[in-house]
Amino acid sequence: MFCFLSNSQEFELQKNEMICAREKVNKANAAVRTYNWGLEAQGAPGTLRMIADSNGVYFPAYDPNGNVIGLVKASDGTVCAQYEYLPYGEQVIATGTMAVSNPIRFSTKYRDNETGLYYYGYRYYSPAMGRWLSRDPIEEQGGLNLYGFVNNDPVNKWDLWGMKNRMFFIIIPYVASFESFYFPYKGEVNLSFLHTTWYEIRFPKMVQYAFNRFSDEIKEKLNKKCKNNESLDIKDNEIRPIWIGAYGTGESETLGQFDEGDVGDKRQFSYEAALVLGNYKIEIHNFNIRYEKRMTKKLGCCFQYEWNAKILVKDGLGLDSSNIGKDESSRTYKFLSIYFPKRIAIIAQWEINGNGICCMRYEK
Length: 364
Hints:
The strands form 4 sheets. Strands 1-2-3-4-5-6-7-8-9 form a 9-stranded antiparallel sheet, covered by helices on one side. It has a 5-stranded mixed sheet with strand order 16-20-19-18-17. A 4-stranded antiparallel sheet has the order 10-11-12-13, with no helix packed on it. The chain starts with a strand and ends with a strand. The protein is of the alpha+beta class. It has helices at about 175-180, 190-200, 205-225, 270-275, 330-340, and strands at about 1-5, 10-15, 15-25, 30-35, 50-55, 55-60, 70-75, 80-85, 90-95, 110, 120, 125, 130, 155-160, 165, 190, 240-245, 280-295, 300-315, 345-360.
């Protein structure tokens, strides 16, 4: 743990994460603002959970890259700060009553208002120059350019402590939690336009498994219906969904024994299960069949058909006060469930299709 000074405040850090801000002129050294971070990600973008001061509690909102783009007051939903950035982190807009006093902004890092520099724990970053002010502490292990910022690709990469760039594969879906806050209605919200690409990159074998599983099951059901002279229409609930089990925040049990590791992908990390997915399911939606060409034979009628449907990855957003794990603080979660009500989010979606020939026998 160590401290560093601003013009009028002293900031205390632990494991490179700010835990409180104290006024230097305050003789009692009392904290004027505290910060609550996710424990699993340890300083990654998008992991600041809330800010509290004498005026109330604030929830940060993020863009898909984990940059703080706003602060929302928990008590009444008032937007107290809004930010916009250029790709390398230069701040172009900062409005609202908390815009200046809140120092956590681009890449969820501390910004010094006097210099405009961002502190990453091991060195300072200048968004105006798009580079670090000091050499990389891990030397060429972080890249040949010792002053370069994330290989000059801040749209797709991020840096945890100022030493090594990483891909944005764990950050993007975290926005879903805050989408849950901004849309206070029950039902489904479609976030697939934000997260489909992330899911394909993070769980490519699960995507392929879902396509193969659903395609085989649909073909099997169509062949069976054809053999029994039944209508080829299939209801969505006739196709078994794929349940993925992983302990998420506030979830008291997993949905099953099957997970991403069973198909060859890396299983969800603890922070992904807590902040991103946890338990979720993949299902078929909007199955549709179209009959193309009809061929009459002596013993029956044969026709060609084409079918299509959507594959949806569905996850629960928000918190459910009735589904609290034994290790969770039920009072805290019941309070937060007011601001993060439970609803279903479509995390990713794809089109699936196929065709075939069916020959039905004439009834005697």
